[in-house]
Amino acid sequence: MTTLYLQMTEKLIAHWKANGNAYPQKFTLSPALRDEYLRCLSWMTNNRGKTVTMPETHMGVRIEVAEGSPGVMVAADGAEVSLQ
Question: Which residues pair with 64 in a beta bridge?
């Protein structure tokens, strides 16, 4: 099962490869995806069952939470790339 954490990482790596290591502008998650990200993060950091605070970035890319967002990575050129 692919987690949201890994999907975001894979999209970031693909962006780096396609854009000469340029960082995308940001990730935009819905509140539900934020909660899923936090669950994934608790597993990835071996903090299962503990409260995990939302980081400001994922591998150096800003994370924004917006109601109604389908979950996207905003590329360096402004294009939205679906995380699903």
Answer: 28
Helices (H), 1-84: 4-18, 31-44
pLDDT band at 2 (very low <50, low <70, confident <90, very high): low
Task: Name the amino acid, one letter, at 79.
Answer: A
Phi, psi angle pair for 49, to nearest 5°: 85, -5
Q: Which residue has the tokens 């591998």?
A: 59
Q: What is the pLDDT of residues 7-62, one digit of tens each?
A: 999 999 999 999 999 999 999 999 999 999 998 888 877 767 777 889 999 999 99
- Given CA atoms 61, 13, 67, 36 in this order, what sign does their dihedral have? negative
Contact 72, 28 (CB under 8 A): yes
17/41 Cα distance (integer angstroms): 24
Nearest Cα residue to 74 out of 2, 9, 15: 15
